[in-house]
Fold this protein.
Amino acid sequence: EDDSGSTTTGNRLALLSGGYDALLVRVHLIRQARVSIDIQTFIWTNDECGRLLMYELIEAARRGVHVRIIADHMVSAQDPATAAFLATVHPNLEVKHYRPAMTRMKPSRLQTALAALTSFRATNQRMHNKLMVFDDAIMITGGRNIENTYFDHSTELNFLDRDVLAVGPVARDTADSFARFWAYQHAVASRDLADVAELIASGEFPHYATRADYDFGGYFTALDREAGDAALITARFAGRLKPVAKVAFIGDAPGKARGFFSRTAHITRALRRTLEQAREHVVMQTPYLVLSPPARELFREMQAKNPGLRIQVSSNSFASTDNLLAYSANYRLRNQYVEDLALQVHELKPQPAALPALFPQYPLMAARAAERIKAGRQKRAPFLCLHAKSLVVDARLAFVGSYNLDPRSENLNTEVGLLVEDAAFARELLADM
């Protein structure tokens, strides 16, 4: 029914909060991998960070590492020519797409509409998973997709996000989940998409032969050097890995539960059981605060059982959100959340006082933004939007993953994350939030 592993011991974990460091550790781990790299992502954009990771993965494939990538089709780059290049660049690199419409990389608007009409739920149900597994021994999961905005490299919107890096048996459970998605009938290889197959047959697609062909825009000179600096990697990552008491990988099965807006999604049940254990204090961080009727009822039940229970939520403001529609549609319920459910809701400013600490890349991105604003290519300076998805219950149970506090994560999109039972890790996550 689900993709969750058993609770494991013997794992070491570290939080990855800063976007620059999150990119740096990914490049380092890709270079260190010897056998396999498995990646799942909701979004893969063909921008500087997207091309950097693809370049590094191709280099890994060329030295003998088996690289497998699954990207959700709907919101990732839909470029048949690039897909043709990736499908043919090396036998060790394989790419699949989750639920491509009409078995095409770039369906027309009419084809997309037809796909929605013939199977609305299949079109609407997406793979929101974000994970990377290296040699079945090291894994990363959290909120980050693959795009400049998630790694502090955007001149406009930049996400405040969070991943967790784990070394130990939980990586094997994560790899097992990936394998189920890889075998899923609606995960389709690039070369099996009609428009990509046509390009492969014609040979008329670009071939990126050198590092310069990937056009990194001068971004990664320092990062390229730092990724190979053993002392720096130890100080920033390996040295911060701490043993934790218990960890469980939790995730949905491919396709999620049957039935539109089903209440039987596995990760939702697991997180509900976690919340039900609360006695004193719950802290949640979510980009979107859209509580379904069952979610609102859960909070009422929790507070009826424990009248002194304090529930704090960190989320976006109208000025910082990346989804105005979701915020606007839910705004009328904000009073109910605060007055009826007694939630303490804290909203992020797009330019918080802590900007230099939260976004060390800001001076560089602001300088580039100023040039773009002057040229009429964008309208505003870099700003922050919260994208982290985390939970702490009674300073002892913690969750970091891809799950938003909204009906899509609850019932429709597949989600993943780590559930951690360890007081020290929970305290560190609380401090970070």
